[in-house]
Design brief:
The structure is a single chain. It is built from twelve helices and 20 strands. By secondary structure, the protein is an alpha+beta fold. Strands 2-1-5-4-3-6-7 form a seven-stranded antiparallel β-sheet, with helices on both faces. The chain is globular and about 75 Å long.
Length: 562
């Protein structure tokens, strides 16, 4: 071990750094204004070395965490590491300069010790609105990034501990919910200050060189473990492809294709046969693409490997510029988080073909299920943006049914309680339940999607949504059936109808009035194995719990209710 650090000390420092990232998240959650932060936990936190390499992260959103390092490195390069002073912080959201999509704002703070930068703290969080053409900034008709909201390059947002009031005012004057935005940005800065305090305390106790050496060793161990697992898999190439419903502009499906190649202890993912960048907002920028690839590999390899820079070193990614997974500016990309789901699905499907190796799940519901209802709250007169991103079904494993009602594998959010929704928005939650028959049939059944029905209580409101898996269901494995499809419906009092019949999973500013009911129905997970091989006992249990209907038991599983 470098610098003669004993394993105990190294392990303590590793745990401390992870705890720093976790405590950043606690600070963020407890001090934020919006429900997206303090209820949904749609944010991530990490600690990085002085060059922007990831040391440690909290157990937050996987899709943020692999991409955060791109933002830290962009900030270092554009702002200039020599220009940072104690108490500074950089803010950015530009997807083409380290961001993911515009609603995700990233705060980056240098950590000084004895006058030198020893590390960086960074967090990324999804805001309720960042301006643009529609409330909530998910615009399914966007044809360029400029339409999707306020673009913020890496700027020095905090100087010597004080937020730049001019920059704050520019941001607040470009969003629809300025009170929430101010509070949430201050929460992000506070989160990083927590990391500064805790990391300085660690350096004071052990010394900078010991902390840095222990962190380097931690990354080296992650790399060693990841390479050992990849080496245990057979050399060769395996391909897989899946489809997105459409891009919101053109009705055609969009192909995501990967060829995974194992050569010794290196794993290469070549996305060259994926479709070119599209006109609509489904493009995934390089940080999003890399993060989705990393998290899929880690889930397949060994989730206990500490996720840091070392764990990602054996993974190589080929995504040609101008493609769906590495678009050229100013291609719209707010819905790149939808495409990230499909990246995970094809990576896992490719790895599932290995004759020996990883045990991966069938496809999950494969969408963030982004739904936004904007309105004016009669009680307060404030403009409100409700953002719903509920759970769906996960895919089955060879030895286990898929999980019901979980957030997609790219996210690690929490469900939005009915009480919080009704307290803060002019909305009443009428229904929240599992969707029968949405789990893909198989020897092991896929997990069930969910249904949430919202009654509109405002005189004037509008609905926008950018989702997927409403046309192409989650893939099954080894003969398992695809998962059930998602749906977005509106009932104006004359029965539920498709909210956006032209594109099914994408709609923009659909007019709503008092009493309208919006029904958000998420997709199910894929099944594993031939459905006929499912045990009578398991089918009977599914019937008893209401997971499947009598018809499914008879038609699919060939079992009659006794």
């Amino acid at each position: 071990m470098s610098n003669n650090i004993d394993p105990i000390t190294s392990g303590v420092i590793r745990s401390h750094l992870v705890s720093v990232a976790r405590e950043m998240g606690v600070t963020l959650r407890q001090t934020a204004y919006s429900n997206i932060f303090n209820e949904g936990s749609d944010f991530s936190c990490g600690v990085f070395d002085h060059a922007g390499r990831l040391w440690a992260q909290g157990e937050f959103l996987p899709i943020h965490l692999g991409a955060l390092q791109f933002a830290v490195r962009e900030a270092i390069e554009e702002v200039g590491i020599s220009t940072f002073e104690e108490g500074d912080a950089v803010l950015l959201n530009d997807p083409y300069r380290g961001g993911t999509h515009l609603p995700d704002l990233t705060a980056i703070t240098p950590i000084f010790y004895s006058g030198s930068i020893v590390a960086f703290a960074a967090n990324r969080a999804h805001h309720a609105d960042i301006g643009g053409s529609v409330a909530g900034s998910f615009y399914s008709k966007a044809t360029e990034n400029f339409q999707e909201g306020l673009r913020i390059p890496p700027i020095r947002f905090v100087r010597k501990g004080k937020i730049d009031s001019d920059l704050m005012e520019i941001i607040l004057n470009n969003v629809r919910v300025p009170r929430e935005m101010r509070g949430d940005l201050e929460a992000q800065i506070s989160s990083n200050r927590t990391a500064v305090t805790r990391t300085i305390a660690l350096c004071e106790r052990y010394g900078v060189s010991v902390v840095q050496s222990a962190a380097d060793e931690m990354c080296a161990q992650s790399e060693k473990r990841m390479r050992a697992i990849i080496s245990s898999w057979p050399d060769g190439s395996w391909s897989s492809e899946d489809y997105l419903d459409n891009d919101g502009i053109n009705p055609d499906s969009i192909k995501v294709h990967v060829t995974a190649t194992i050569a010794g202890d290196t794993l290469t993912f070549d996305y060259s046969d994926t479709d070119k960048q599209v006109a609509g907002p489904m493009n995934s920028v390089r940080g999003m693409t890399a993060s989705a690839t990393y998290l899929a590999v880690q889930a397949a390899a060994d989730p206990t490997i500490p996720a840091n820079d070392g764990a990602y070193r054996p993974i190589k990614i080929i995504a040609p510029e101008g493609s769906l997974l590495n678009p050229r500016f100013p291609a719209p990309c707010t819905a790149g988080n939808e495409t990230s789901h499909r990246i995970v699905n094809v990576v896992q499907s490719a790895l599932a073909q290995l004759p020996t190796g990883p045990n991966v799940i069938a496809g999950d519901h494969g969408s963030s299920n982004n739904l936004l209802i904007s309105s004016v709250d009669k009680r307060s007169g404030e403009f409100k943006v409700f953002f719903s991103y509920p759970e769906g079904g996960w895919g089955a494993l060879d030895e286990k049914d898929g999980e019901n009602a979980l957030f997609s594998i790219v996210g690690n959010c929490k469900n939005m309680p009915a009480e919080a929704v009704e307290l803060h928005f002019p909305i009443r939650l009428l229904c929240y339940e599992l969707r029968q028959d949405t789990g893909g049939a198989g020897r092991q059944r896929g997990g069930l999607g969910t249904r949430r029905d919202y009654e509109v209580l405002s005189d004037s409101a509008s609905l926008s949504f950018v989702s997927d898996r409403c046309i192409f269901g989650a893939n099954g494995l080894d003969g398992g059936d695809p998962g059930g499809l998602g749906q977005y419906l509106i009932n104006h009092g004359d029965g539920p109808k498709l909210a956006a019949p032209d594109f099914i999973s994408k709609g923009t500013q659909v007019a709503l009035r008092v009493g309208d009911v919006v029904s958000q129905r998420t997709a199910g997970g894929g099944g594993y194995g031939n459905p006929i091989a499912r045990s009578v006992e398991d089918v009977a249990r599914d019937l008893r719990l209401g997971y499947i209907s009598d018809n499914a038991a008879e038609e699919i599983y060939k079992i009659h209710r006794r």
